[in-house]
Amino acid sequence: MDAAGGRGARARRGTRSTAPRSRGREKGAARSPSRGRAAGEGSSAIATLRTPRTEGAPARGGRSARRTPGAREPPAGGAAGGAEAPPAPRSRAPAARVPAAPGSHAAVPDGAVAAAGRRPPPAADALRLREVLSRLSLLREDVSEASTLVNTVVRHLVQAIRDRESCFSSMEQQSAGSYYERVKISEPNEFDIMLVIPIKQNANDSTRLQLDESDDTGAYYYASFKRGPIERGWLKFLEEDGKLSASKMMQALRDIIKQEVKNIRGMEVTVARKRAGSPAITLQIKKPPLEISVDIILTLKAQKSWPPSTQDGLKIEQWLGTKKRRDFRLTPIYLVAKQNKREKVLRGNTWRLSFSHIEKDMIKNHGNSKTCCESNGPKCCRKGCLKLLKFLLEQLKRKYPKELEKFCSYHVKTAFLHSCVMWPNDTDWYLGNLDHSFQQCLGFFVDCLQKSQLTHFFIPQYNLLSQEDKARHHFLSRKISYELNNGFPVFHENY
Fold it and tell me: Averaged over 103-115, what is the pLDDT?
């Protein structure tokens, strides 16, 4: 799912296996300017990393020094914020320590200048990134076992929910998130499932659901029914002013699920405690040796025009085509039960737009040409770059949990989608240029962090990086720059 439609700032739970130690990275040759632009970003945001991006002086001549085995990054400066650390990882099995790669070059501190002429051939760097990527691939038998377990539980729950609550009688199950986008990394231990309630239409075929913006982001809305008879089952979920209460519906759904998991046999299924700000009901499924987390997300679906705030978003004409954009915008709108923290009085009545179904389609069918990554077609590195972006953030969050707790995979996913627009052609993502393409994505993300401006891919007026958290943004920017300068040492550290 998504931060703009999913997990919030939730920390990763599973322990990941580590990859072989890298000696460096491929030189990022400058590329020709892109034909596309990310929504809300100017030309300064277009990253062509000839040199690693750092908060201080860049590495001289675009070269990066290899990291001495065992060398550690200098202690960070003042940590941004003092929030609590995220929950401990669910799996406690220690990851295997990978022996250090031979070499004797010192690490480059944040902002320092790397010595010239001390990097291996570019092909070697690209190979090492591919080795890291290969460690993130899911084993087919693990995926099959985990998904079977999840489907068994969810099918049982959906049938029970339909039978026990009339408003939920037409509920549909819909998958979302990284597992179903095929960019899940390391372990199939987290799943997102949307439980979708279609809003019925009136006799004149007009949509009954009315949406009113709750703030200036264009992402959060109050939902109510237009004039006309309202089914009795919905009345208990309406506030006095007629607004449809997301919190009341979530609580009803939670109560049913808590009772019904007791009737599931052959495994242990429990409902986790509520997480502040999360739009999900989280299930913990245990059937040794498997321990799986499933986020259940209550979602409304209405066949109506997308809100005006989305008009200038989804700028994929140069990437996926004008027709594809038009087709996407004709699909129903989805709203997830999500509290808007900007409200002066938190009432739990707000719903947030969700585009996870479209994000899944774009990532699975990502090519500028229809044959990209098909069995007989050319292969690209888009999904590989997204996996590496997610893994980098995940590892940094493990290392700096308090400073980076507000960042989630949806931030890098959004940066990746903007990168696909800025470099729309399949030739921009040639599989052999994995290292260069990965650095381009990182460069764009670093630019966003330094400006504290990451535009929502579908809602251009919505900034995913709060201006109140600039110190945190700059902190992550420095850490990523350090990784760029030193061949991504965090890929090979255990916590």
Answer: 40
The single-letter code of the amino acid at 185 is I
Q: Is it the case that residue 16 has pLDDT exceeding 60? A: no
In tens, the pLDDT along 336-393 reads 998 888 776 667 789 999 999 999 899 989 999 888 988 888 999 999 999 999 999 9
3-state secondary structure (DSSP) of residue 437: helix
pLDDT of residue 400 exceeding 90: yes
Specify the pTM: 0.74
Helices 246-260/140-164 angle, 10° precision: 110
C-alpha atoms less than 13 angstroms from C-alpha of 303 in its C-beta half-sphere: 6
Q: In whole angstroms, give the CA distance from residue 268 to residue 252.
A: 22
Specify the length of the chain in residues. 495
Interval 176-195: pLDDT, tens: 654 444 545 555 578 888 99
Instruction: Specify the pLDDT at position 229.
Output: 57
Distance CA(233)–CA(215), nearest Å, equals 29
For 172, the token pair is 């549909």
**How far apart are the C-alpha atoms of 251 and 42, rounded to whole Å?**
43
Classified as helix, coil or strand, 131 is: helix
CA dist 406 and 90 (Å) reads 19
pLDDT score at 98 = 33
Which residues 6+ apart lie within 8 Å of 41 measured at CB? Answer: 418, 448, 453, 455
Distance between alpha carbon 218 and the CA centroid of its chain, in Å? Answer: 20
Query: What is the rounded CA–CA span in Å between residue 167 and residue 236?
Result: 10
Say how far apart CA 21 and CA 490 lie, in whole Å: 9
Residue 376 burial (CB < 10 Å; 0-12/13-18/19+)? exposed
Tokens 């902190």 -> residue:
475
What 3-state class would DSSP assign to 119?
A: coil
